[in-house]
Write a structure and sequence with these properties.
This protein is mainly beta and about 1000 residues long. The protein has a 24-stranded parallel sheet, with helices on both faces. The protein has a 24-stranded parallel sheet, with no helix packed on it. Strand 4 (about 110-115) and strand 5 (about 120) form a beta hairpin.
Length: about 1000
């Protein structure tokens, strides 16, 4: 038939040569019809008639009616064509000029036209070979014959252009055919043999939908690719994506049985398709739009079992896209993976594919969705838009497994769904990240899950530096030992974990953590994530959003962090659990230990420091809160430090909001912040709001044993308690500086204290310009400020405001209680508003509670205001011996200026004069005579409104001017409670 067409063509050429112009005009339509080569000739022996022109609307004109028929509404995949085919395009109007691009390369085209259609015929020299990437076909600068520019809508068509395409049809093909669309081959093996002998570069196999049996492993020829997804009855339609449906499925089924294990003669893993012995880095081979099913039966006892497809042994690059690779092996002692690469030197690209290990669970079997093996010198792998599924494993498994060795290239995982295996007896891991420091790894925009396992990890980082984990959704399954969203190991360093949502499942003895940095080094950045720890159910387990171990530095910023519940004995639930030395910078986070702890001696904290090494913790601008506890002896804390040998440059908290949850168990404690640390580190808290929840015992801040503590401009509150409440308790044998804080006790407690400084040999103490408020409505013995016994000579308590609060039942109450202060304490320039009681007790503004005496004590230039009945301005304990001064104070509204239960005379102690009274043995003075005393009741700005600043007229009531120079010498400054410099003659009370 073709020979006849050729003769017919030559005859018409002869006629044209010998005819006149009229005859030529009559013959031309016939000759044009025959000589027009169209893409339809791919599919039939004779050319089909030219379609009638499609009417179009004048400008803008839309390109329509592609007569190649490769582009139709059903086509979802790029089209594969050989380089020598001809295309036609019908614009519906005659075209004078136009530019056509394939990708970014401008093509050479000839233009032929008649009255109804304009045709573009690309010359073979214009094609760019490129089966690695689909190239978009676009039109630019098109002008009609009339000279009007045509605005075209570029077609949604993409082309793969190969040197040669061999077509295969499992139903109608014959292996002795030429491999054209009219005469396809039948088997994959025959087509590959033809490609290896008849093609030099970028050869392709086109496969119709159907099942293609393979009886053994196939080694692919160099530079040969396989494209499946062609319609089983129509070559003009192709569909290739990872959700392929019949009739488009092109299935390569491996029927091999009894595959042996690795031996001296079998040195590489078995695979259905192999790509070996390539050189260079360029991508050479492509698998596109096929289903590869590995064999079911294998006898391997070691090495790697059958897999779907593999690129190994010095391959020079490989592309897998729009495909499904299944390993179906059901044998013991095998390693199953959907895709595996070993010792590759080229670039691997995997896109829009499903890679699945065997779903059969046998006694010993390891499963990987993708296994990226050792020694990838100069290699790189990118996997995108794919499903990596490690199915079921009885040994271990990962959705993506990067094995140890030297990897110099980049590993990139993006926009994939990656699943770890169901593995109840061993580990289930979404991604195993093992890469060398000379390479790098990026994990972005994936959905990563692990399943049930002994240890269940979303990502397990084994080796490598600079891992980037960004914009992923990561969920780890329940682990009988542990569940970790991300876990690092000893050889890892310098991670970046940003913009992820990470949730861990429940864990056993090793707990549950969204991100655990275990034994890694360097600086790790964790920012803009939502991290949620799961529950932990074993004794001593930990649930946390972030946990650090071993020396490292971390930068933790702008995250939302939550921990889960802990139900094991002495377990801990913590938003951040620090168990590593180093510098930790924590800023702008919302840190919630939202889980509850329900067992005896459990702990719920926002941030927990358990590090025994040298640590610096900088916390700025965070909202920190703990969960609740209901077990006996349990504890809640917004921040809790419990490392008994920690040291370093300190704990620096600035501009945080720190809150503990409620505790309801017997003898439980609730702390806004708590430290049980014997340490040389400095506690520096500045401008924070600190609150505790409710409990049996509650503390806003409970600091034990710290070396140096500096509290400035904090607002500290304590929740209600059934036993004891303290706004701030400091019990360290170390220095304490407090400046500008507002500290409140809670309400309804039995024993309430706004501030308590306790340690018999405590370090230097400088407490200035603070406000201490003891709330009303409680029982027991409330004390606004309790300065317990202390022998340190550097003890200053200056310019503070104390509001005594009171009680609702009969009993005693104190504003300022003094223990034995034998070091020479200075109590100067304070305003003390007395507590109130109902009846049956004594309210004291200053209560001496020591029995061993006071050496060098100085109480000077204070305002003591009784503010109620049954109030002693001074109350002293029997057998108290004084060696100091009590002078130039204003005592007002007290039923007794000095209620004494000790010796009759304290004249040497009371060396000055008093407003509204005098010392025992000296008689009660109706008017003071000494300098610096108030001669009238102090005038407060708003007594009823608890504004105890002094009215401007008060300074006229100071007899002969107060001694501000003495105040400055004693307290080290001349500032009042508001930080204002005291003017001459106003150095009395907390405010000038």
């Amino acid at each position: 038939m073709k020979a006849n067409l050729l003769k017919f063509f030559l005859l018409f050429q002869l006629l044209l040569t010998n005819c006149n112009e009229v005859d030529k005009k009559n013959l031309f339509p016939i000759l044009s019809y025959i000589s027009r080569f169209r893409i339809d000739s791919l599919f039939s022996t004779l050319p089909t008639p030219i379609p009638a022109p499609v009417p179009v609307t004048p400008s803008p004109v839309t390109i329509s009616n592609y007569t190649n028929n490769f582009y139709s509404s059903e086509t979802l995949a790029p089209i594969l064509i050989p380089k020598d085919k001809v295309l036609e395009f019908n614009f519906g109007v005659e075209i004078s000029t136009c530019e056509i691009f394939l990708g970014t390369t401008k093509q050479n085209f000839t233009i032929e036209s008649n009255s109804s259609v304009t045709k573009f015929t690309p010359s073979s020299a214009g094609w760019t070979l490129g089966v690695e990437t689909a190239q978009a076909l676009t039109f630019q600068n098109c002008v009609s014959k009339s000279g009007t520019a045509i605005i075209t809508s570029n077609p949604n068509i993409n082309l793969y252009v190969a040197e040669k395409v061999i077509y295969v049809d499992s139903v109608l093909g014959v292996d002795t055919n030429l491999g054209t669309t009219e005469a396809p081959m039948k088997t994959i093996l025959a087509s590959l043999t033809s490609a290896s002998t008849g093609c030099l570069d970028r050869c392709a196999i086109g496969i119709k939908g159907g099942e293609y049996l393979i009886s053994g492993s196939i080694t692919m020829p160099l530079n040969t690719s396989i494209f499946g997804g062609f319609h089983s009855t129509d070559w003009t339609k192709r569909r290739a994506d990872k959700t392929m449906l019949s009739p488009y499925d092109s299935i390569l089924k491996d029927t091999s049985v009894n595959i042996p294990s690795a031996s001296a003669t079998i040195t590489s893993p078995y695979s259905t398709l192999k790509f070996v012995s390539y050189v260079g880095l360029q991508n050479k081979s492509i698998i596109d739009g096929v289903v590869v099913n590995g064999p079911v039966s294998a006898t391997a006892t070691s090495f790697v079992a059958p897999i779907g497809s593999v690129n190994l042994q010095s391959g020079a690059g490989f592309i897998l896209r729009n495909s499904i690779c299944n390993d179906l092996s059901d044998s013991n002692n095998v390693t199953s993976s959907g895709f595996s690469s070993v010792s590759n030197f080229g670039t691997i690209l995997i896109d829009n594919s499903i890679l699945k290990a065997s779903t059969t669970s046998v006694s010993i079997s390891t499963r990987y969705g993708v296994r990226y093996n050792i020694f990838h010198l100069g290699s790189a792998i990118t996997i995108s838009n794919s499903n990596l599924d490690s199915s079921i494993s009885s040994a271990s498994g990962s959705g993506f497994f990067s094995e140890g060795g030297t990897k110099a290239g980049m590993i990139t995982l993006t926009k994939n769904t990656i699943k770890g295996p169901v593995s109840s007896l061993v580990n289930s891991i979404g991604i195993t990240a093992d890469f060398s420091t000379s390479g790098a790894m990026s994990i972005t925009e994936n959905t990563i899950t692990s399943a049930i396992g002994t240890d269940s990890y979303g990502i397990n980082a084994v080796d490598g530096s600079g891992l980037i984990i960004s914009k992923n959704s990561i969920t780890s399954g329940n682990g009988s030992t542990s569940s970790k969203g991300i876990s690092t190991n000893s050889s890892t360093s310098n991670f970046s974990i940003t913009d992820n949502t990470i949730t861990s499942g429940s864990g056993g003895t090793n707990g549950s953590t969204a991100v655990i940095l275990f034994q890694s080094t360097g600086t790790h950045t964790i920012s803009n994530n939502v991290l949620t720890g799961g529950s932990c159910v074993a004794s001593n387990c930990i649930s946390s959003a972030i946990e650090t171990n071993n020396p490292m530095d971390t930068i933790i910023t702008n995250n939302q962090l939550s921990s889960g519940a802990c139900t094991g004995a002495t377990c801990t639930t913590s938003g951040i659990y620090l168990n590593s030395a180093g510098t930790h910078t924590i800023s702008g986070n919302t840190i919630n230990s939202t889980g509850s702890c329900t067992t005896a001696s459990c702990i719920a904290t926002g941030i927990f420091n358990a590090s025994a090494g040298i640590i610096t913790l900088n916390s700025t601008g965070n909202t920190i809160s703990s969960g609740t506890c209901s077990g006996n002896n349990c504890t809640t804390s917004g921040f809790f430090s419990n490392a008994n040998s920690a040291s370093g440059s300190g704990f620096n908290f600035t501009n945080n909001n720190i809150t503990s949850g409620n505790c309801t168990g017997a003898t439980c404690n609730a702390n806004g912040i708590a430290s049980n640390t014997t340490t040389s580190a400095t506690f520096n808290f500045d401008n924070n709001t600190i609150s505790s929840g409710t409990g049996v015992n509650t503390w806003g801040a409970n600091i034990l044993f710290a070396s140096t503590s500096i509290f400035t401009n904090n607002n500290i509150n304590v929740g209600t308690a059934t036993t004891a409440q303290t706004g701030f308790r400091f019990a360290g044998a170390s220095s304490l500086t407090m400046n500008g804080n507002t500290i409140r006790s809670g309400t309804l407690g039995v024993n309430r204290t706004a501030f308590r400084r306790e340690h018999p040999s405590g370090g230097p103490t400088d407490i200035q310009r603070n406000t201490f408020i003891n709330e009303s409505n409680g029982t027991g013995t409330p004390i606004a400020v309790d300065l317990a016994p202390n022998s340190n000579p550097n003890y200053r308590f200056c310019s503070n405001l104390i509001v005594g609060g009171g009680r609702t039942n009969p009993g005693n109450a104190s504003g300022l209680q003094l223990g034995v202060l034998n070091g020479g304490a200075i109590i100067m320039g304070n305003t003390i508003i007395g507590p109130t009681i109902v009846s049956g007790g004594i309210a004291s503004l200053v209560n001496f509670n020591g029995i061993s005496g006071y050496t060098g004590l100085r109480i000077d230039q204070n305002i003591l205001f009784g503010n109620g009945p049954l109030t002693n301005c001074i109350n002293e304990t029997p057998a108290t011996n004084y060696n100091g001064t009590l002078a130039k104070n204003s005592f007002t509204a007290c039923s007794s200026v000095f209620y004494r239960r000790g010796p009759d005379s304290h004249d040497t102690f009371c060396s000055g004069n008093f407003g509204r009274g005098g010392c025992p043995g000296s008689g009660l003075l109706s008017n003071p005579t000494g300098n610096g005393n108030l001669i009238n009741t102090p005038m407060f700005t708003n007594l009823a409104g608890n504004n105890f600043r002094l009215d401007a007229s008060t300074h006229t009531n100071i007899l002969n001017g107060a001694d501000e120079s003495a105040f400055n010498t004693a307290c080290g400054n001349s500032l009042d409670r508001d930080g204002n410099t005291r003017t001459a003659g106003t150095a009395i009370g907390a405010y000038r």
